[in-house]
Each structure stands twice: as structure tokens, then as C-alpha cells.
Specification:
By secondary structure, the protein is mainly α. The chain has five helices and no strands. Helix content is 72%, strand content 0%. 27% of the residues are buried.
Length: 134
Amino acid sequence: MRLSSTAPRTVLGAGALVGLQGLTALGFTVLLLVRGLAGDAVTGGNVYGEAAYFAVLTAGVLACGIGLLLGKHWARSPSIVLQVLLLGVSWYAIGPSGRPEIGAPVAVVCLVVLVLLLRPATNAWAQGEDYRGE
């Protein structure tokens, strides 16, 4: 699998970060499955259903990250939406949940990805124009 040479570095950097988010989500999904197999049901909920839900979300995030790394134009918009949604999650983690050690790094990564995906070179690439090699 070869990375696209036609995509600007901003797209490739964003793809790497979105892929990292996907791998983190995959780790969380595996952790949920391990908890379920160990019989640890904290709130009496269906841990397997939750793991299946996160597996579907993880597949979407990984698809966007891989799509950006391969220079696929379709992956940009869902990645932007994902970052905006994760900014809301990070705000909740920082504020109401009282977990800034989790929320702050997530917010920083989201902001970096948004900046990369909204740079002029990325916009020009997404519209099929010459982006002058950034």
C-alpha cells in the first residue's frame, strides 16, 4: 500500500492523526470486550453491545484515517465532522466530567487535525486545484 504523492503533507498529517484516533478507539473497544469476557458489568449494561457500537464507530474512524493517508478526497469531510464531535466530547471531559487529563489532549489533537484539514493547500487539493506543494 503506497501513500498518495498527490495529496499535500497537511492531508497526510491529518490522516496520521485520525488513524491514531482510530487505533485508540480500537484499543478502547478491545478493553470493553475484555471487560465483558471477565464478567465485569459495572452498571449491569450490555458490555458486548457497547463494544459492538464502538467497533462500528472505530471502523469509520480508521476508514477516514486510511482514506486521508491514501489521498482520497471523500475522507476529508467525515474527518472534519468527526473532529467537531470529538471537540464536544473533550469539552465534556474537561468540564462536567472533571477529567481534564483526558479531555485536554483530545481537544489539542482535534484542533490540530482541524487546522490541517482547513489549510489553504488542503482546500485547494479537495477542490482539485493546484495547491503548490504544501
